[in-house]
């Protein structure tokens, strides 16, 4: 995509799904990409796909809930490429349980794997970004409305949108833009594993005005656009990519 070349970006949770699609799309636009995931082999697969397509990428293992791990991953990107122009914070974790049935440990794990992890990523990405840089946080439709039986996940995703908006205001004078993308149900491996049989997917499609779920590539294209110069006057938004579910 025009506007991301020749630049350097990183994508968390890039071993599969939306993260992988985003890394591939950035690379196709000419950007060098650091592929970050807690699963080293999955990240390596994405890196290999980029290289087979003629792009430039490196792999780094990261646990976004661990501060030292995040710091090292950002530093590795800057050391390898000499700069950082944009970051897509996609990694996260889900949970589906009624609030009264959720343990404190589970609640804190989900919040740390989403909200705290995004905070840690931004903490080290923001100082590394050049003027004109951009961050895109992959939140969720659950950051804008309720999802039944997902109190920790929804709370964390609402928090990510809050972090996004505050950072957008605080770092605008530095020429850095910060936005969020809020996907609706998307046909990722994680979603399909959760959905199980085809009935759940069919029900989700039935309540979506466009009549189908998003593909990872459709969400990725929105994230890459927000990274690009085409979105140079956009900051602090939470962009729904949900097939009209919030219309």
UniProtKB/TrEMBL annotation:
Instruction: Using the record for this protein, list the coiled-coil segments as residue ranges, or answer none.
Output: none
PROSITE patterns, A to Z = ADH_SHORT
This protein's source sits in the domain of life called: Bacteria
Keywords of the record, alphabetical order, are: Oxidoreductase
Q: Which InterPro entries match?
A: NAD(P)-bd_dom_sf (IPR036291), Sc_DH/Rdtase_CS (IPR020904), SDR_fam (IPR002347)
- Pfam families under this entry? adh_short_C2 (PF13561)
Please state which protein family the record places this protein in.
Answer: Belongs to the short-chain dehydrogenases/reductases (SDR) family.
- What is the protein name for this chain? SDR family oxidoreductase
What organism does this protein naturally occur in?
A: Actinoallomurus oryzae
């Amino acid at each position: 995509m025009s506007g991301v070349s020749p630049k350097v970006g990183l994508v968390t949770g890039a071993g599969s799904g939306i993260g992988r699609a985003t890394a591939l799309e950035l690379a196709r636009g000419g950007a060098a990409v650091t592929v970050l995931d807690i699963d080293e082999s999955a990240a390596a697969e994405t890196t290999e796909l980029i290289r087979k397509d003629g792009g430039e990428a490196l792999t780094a293992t990261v646990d976004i809930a661990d501060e030292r791990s995040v710091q090292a991953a950002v530093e590795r990107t800057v050391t390898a490429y000499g700069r950082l122009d944009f970051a897509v914070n996609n990694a996260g974790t889900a949970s589906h349980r009624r609030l009264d049935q959720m343990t404190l440990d589970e609640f804190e794990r989900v919040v740390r794997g989403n909200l705290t992890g995004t905070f840690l990523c931004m903490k080290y990405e923001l100082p590394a970004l050049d003027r004109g840089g951009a961050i895109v946080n992959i939140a969720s439709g659950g950051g804008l409305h309720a999802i039944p039986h997902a109190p920790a996940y929804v709370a964390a995703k609402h928090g990510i949108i809050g972090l996004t908006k505050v950072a957008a205001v605080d770092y605008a004078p530095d020429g850095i833009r910060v936005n969020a993308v809020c996907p609706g149900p998307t046909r990722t491996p994680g979603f399909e594993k959760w959905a199980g049989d085809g009935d759940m997917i069919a029900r989700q499609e039935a309540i979506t005005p466009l009549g189908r779920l998003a593909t990872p590539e459709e969400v990725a294209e929105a994230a890459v656009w927000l990274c690009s110069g085409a979105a140079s006057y956009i900051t602090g938004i939470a962009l729904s990519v949900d097939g009209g579910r919030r219309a």
